[in-house]
Amino acid sequence: MELAKILLPPSGTDLAPLIRDEDTYARMAEAVRPLLTDDFESVMVWPAVTRTYAGLEGLRKNWLDWLEPWATYRSTHEKLIDVGNHVVVLFRDHGRREDMETEVELVGAAILTFREGKLARLASYAERAAAFETLGLSE
Question: Order of strands, edge to edge, in the sheet holding 50-54?
């Protein structure tokens, strides 16, 4: 659980500039790299599509793909749930596109999977129920 808290950006952080800026991402990647397994993967699970990317470079590509339409994109962590080798993160995200004045909200979950004291997989789910189902749990 403590490693999950270290790896997650502070709640409410605007992820768009953090991921988009080359220098900022490079500094973050160097700090995080020792905390990831060699075969780390990131996954986005949405009702119509699932995308999987390998390594830290894949994590950035995954997020850049997701952030493309968003001018701002803040993520707030509502609750972390320890489930053995997994930590479920219940989040509430708010994004605003360049052509919009108001933000939209996404209520989802992420599963962080740990192996040998390192993060092996980060899977983000657009629907909380799908994340719980993946682990054989109910909301």
Answer: 13-14, 70-83, 86-97, 104-115, 118-125, 36-45, 50-54
